[in-house]
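re the bet — no i am not wrong, look at it urself. input seq straight from the record:
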Amino acid sequence: MSETPKEMFVRYLQTLHDAVLWKLDGLSEYDARRPVTPTGTNVLGVIKHLAYVEAGYFGDTFGRPFPEALPAFDDDAEYNADLWAAPDESREYIVGLYAKAWAHAQETFAEQELDSVGRVPWWPEERAEVTLHQILVHMTVETARHAGHIDIVREMIDDFVGMRPEAPNLPEQAFDWPSYVAKVDAAARAAAEA
């Protein structure tokens, strides 16, 4: 039996969840939390952000508020509080929050059809009415975008690369990355000088 379109969307999103969490494997507490880009991007913070937005898009949007407080979204919360882990927020807490948000989302998937209508309260009124289909696409794009951020951050921390454990999407044999990078750099310089 083939999967339904809704099952396909959920499967793709689950694959992204697994890839995002895999990028935490082997990271020290400091490396999981530390800012790696000039704008503060960090692995655990991106996972916290994904937990928060998933709880909202698959919860509040469809009349199913997430059962736990999400303090980084409070009106008086510090800007970007959902994009970094406070010292008292353990890795286990944030990963657990992401798992709870996903379980909450799965309940929404079970109760709703792709054409079920919801309302995103934080979007402008003229586009606040949405379908589950639209939000599944939105969250797949959102999660894929942030998975890419995590990929780059993790590579910058310790050269750990790959798409996911069962399909790293990299050459299976030894690859001469320094020569490859030098070739790409030489091409960039040649184009800049042309």
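see?? The two ends are 56 Å apart (CA to CA). told u. also The mean pLDDT is 94. so pay up
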